[in-house]
């Protein structure tokens, strides 16, 4: 193959990469639809950074391919450019051209600095929306007894313990949850300490995260062994689980208007099934919310995957919790 032909091969590969990216939103290879209240903000930042990097990627790759074509070797092993240059050597001609060019150096320092500063400031609000408990609120605070009493949202509490190779979810018992809701003032400290202090009547479920739409969730993340990464791509949530740490995170599944609700009671299977489109009542892959582990954590990493079940309201969640609880008690005994 001639030396110039290599530039064509490189050009075609780069073009294929670009076309693959450009068509992916239209053929279902793009990110899944956002189902949390902060997902649109995250998508905006993702797009901004993607467009900036895509611009410079296309620019530099186009120049690379053009130069490969223009300066292809002739086959006699002598570099066509360096021979004519003042100093022989691969990079010398370009280096000579740019040496002591202060305006060029200023430009490639100043432009990236401006871009990085823009990204740093643009993300502040979104970061706060994700990382501050107070930003994750119910749609209507007056409907929340705890909020009415304290001015804060009563977050749905779930403790997630990662281990090789599954997610163990710990929920409060039905009785405890009812107490929190009925006596928000008195149960404040019990509610707050849920993540740190397991109770004998807690309900333990493997690989299923149950929440309900429009309601803020507080996950207390830990790991029993190595580093794992708790990833909810549909909710734009990703958090490493670090040994020895209990890490809180918040998100709010989109509410009644946007419908993030994805599960129904299946009489024949005698369980709640997920992946159901709330508008059609039929199975729809766009409503399967996976919880993959996003950190290579060992040989079984590939199968460390859970599911998020978004119930249509708190009543449906409590119905599931009661069923999960009785199943759990049957297996472990009422201790
Ligand atoms: Cu893992």
Number of domains: 2
Q: Would you identify the regions where 5 or more consecutive residues have pLDDT less than 50?
A: none
Give, in spatial order, the strands making up the sheet with the most strands: 3-2-1-5-8
Following the backbone from N to C, one meets helices and strands in this order, namely: HHHHHHEEHHEEEEEEEEEEH
CATH superfamily of the largest domain, called what?
Answer: Cupredoxins -  blue copper proteins
CATH architecture group name of the largest domain? Sandwich
Number of strands: 12
Main sheet summary: 5 strands, mixed
Helix content: 25-40%
- Gyration radius, rounded: 27 Å
What is CATH's topology name of the largest domain?
Immunoglobulin-like
* Distance between the amino and carboxyl termini: 75 Å
Task: Summarize the structure in words.
- This protein has 335 residues and is α+β, with helices and mostly antiparallel strands.
- The chain has 2 domains: 3-70 and 101-129, no CATH class; 139-332, Cupredoxins -  blue copper proteins (Immunoglobulin-like).
- 38% of the residues lie in helices and 19% in strands.
- The chain is built from 9 helices and 12 strands.
- The strands form 4 sheets. The protein has a 5-stranded mixed sheet with strand order 3-2-1-5-8. The chain has a 3-stranded mixed sheet with strand order 4-12-11.
- α1 runs antiparallel to α2.
- The chain is elongated.
- The model has no long low-confidence stretch (mean pLDDT 86).
- Copper (II) ion binds next to loops.
- Copper (II) ion is lined by residues 162, 165, 228, 293, 295, 297, 301, 304.
């Amino acid at each position: 193959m001639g030396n110039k032909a290599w530039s064509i091969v490189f050009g075609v590969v780069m073009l294929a990469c670009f076309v693959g990216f450009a068509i992916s939103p239209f053929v279902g290879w793009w990110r899944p639809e956002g189902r949390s209240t902060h997902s649109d903000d995250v998508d905006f930042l993702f797009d901004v950074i993607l467009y900036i990097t895509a611009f410079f990627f296309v620019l530099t790759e186009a120049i690379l391919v053009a130069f490969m074509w223009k300066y292809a070797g002739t086959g006699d092993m002598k570099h066509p450019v360096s021979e004519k240059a003042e100093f022989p050597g691969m990079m010398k001609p370009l280096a000579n051209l740019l040496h002591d060019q202060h305006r060029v150096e200023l430009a490639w320092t100043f432009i990236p600095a401006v871009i990085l500063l823009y990204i740093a400031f643009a993300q502040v609000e979104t970061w706060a929306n994700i990382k501050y408990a107070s930003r994750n609120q119910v749609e209507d605070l007056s409907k929340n007894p705890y909020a009415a009493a304290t001015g804060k949202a009563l977050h749905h509490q779930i403790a997630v313990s990662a281990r090789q190779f599954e997610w163990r979810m710990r929920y409060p018992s039905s009785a405890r949850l009812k107490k929190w809701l009925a006596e928000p003032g008195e149960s404040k400290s019990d509610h707050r300490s849920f993540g740190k202090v397991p109770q004998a009547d807690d309900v333990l479920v493997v690989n299923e995260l149950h929440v309900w739409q429009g309601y803020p969730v507080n996950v207390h993340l830990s790991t029993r062994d190595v580093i794992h990464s708790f990833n909810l791509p549909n909710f734009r949530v990703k958090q490493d689980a670090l040994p020895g740490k209990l890490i809180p995170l918040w998100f709010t599944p989109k509410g009644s208007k946007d419908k993030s609700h994805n599960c129904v009671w299946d009489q024949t299977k005698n369980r709640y099934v997920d992946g159901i489109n709330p508008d059609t009542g039929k199975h729809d892959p766009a409503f399967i919310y996976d919880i993959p582990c996003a950190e290579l954590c060992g040989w079984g990493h590939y199968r460390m995957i859970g599911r998020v079940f978004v119930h249509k309201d708190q009543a449906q969640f409590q119905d599931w919790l009661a069923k999960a609880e009785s199943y759990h008690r049957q297996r472990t005994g009422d201790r």
